[in-house]
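Sample pair:
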Amino acid sequence: MVRGCEKELDAVASLLASAKRVLFITGAGISADSGLPTYRGINGLYNDQATEEGVEIEEALSGDMLETRPEITWKYLAQIEAACLGAQPNFAHQALARIEREKPGSLVLTQNIDGLHHAAGSRNLIEIHGSLRRLHCTRCAYREDAAVWEGRALPPLCPACQGPLRPDVVLFGEMLGMENLRRLQLALQQGFDMVFSVGTSSVFPYIVEPVAWAIRNAIPSVEINPLDTQISEHVRFRLPLGAAEAMQALMARAGL
C-alpha cells in the first residue's frame, strides 16, 4: 500500500521531524485499525440505510430525538458503545501521543467519542464531540465515569434524582462546547508548524477550518485518508493510506 507514496512520505516525515507544534485532526478512520467501524464509508455502521425506526441515523442521534424519544437515541448510542467495547488504541493513537510528548506544543482535535486518544496517552486533547465514557444527569449535578454500559437499563436514570442520564457527547443539532472552541481558537492563534487531517471525512466546517487556516497561511497540510474528501485537492500532501499504516511509515522515517 505504501508503494507509490514514498516521495510524499519522505517529504512529510522530514517536515514532521523538524516541526515543534503539530495539529492532528482525527475522525473515525483513525480508530478503524482498533476494530471500530466508521459510521459511514468503508465498512460503515450506517451506510445508505435508515434505522429500524425509518429515520436517518443523524436524526436518531439528535438532541431533538433524545428529548422526545430518548429510547431511540439511547438504542443507537448503545450500538456505538458496544462497537467500542474492548477496543484498544492502535499504532496511530500511540504515535500521536508520542509526538505530543516529544513536541509538547502539539494538539489532537478529535471528532471521536471512543476515548482511545485519551487511553493512548494524549493529554493536549480536544474531544470536540465529547466522550461516551462520561455521563451526566439532565436534571441535577450528578456526573459519573462509565467504563461500560452493559447491563444498564436504557435510558439509564440518575441514582440521585431519578432524572434521565445522557452521555457527554454532542448530538446532531446541538451546539459545540464553547470551552472547546475557545481552546481551538487559542491554539490556532499560537500557531502550528504542520496540520494533519487523519481519517476524517471533513464534512463539518469546524473540522475543515483548521486545514483551511493552514492552507491560507502556507503551513504544510497533510491528509491521511484512503478516500477522497473535499479537502483532498487542496492540501499540500495527500497520503491515501490507513492511519496506522501511514503513521508507522512517517514515524520510522522521522526517527520518532
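The first helix runs from residue 6 to 18.
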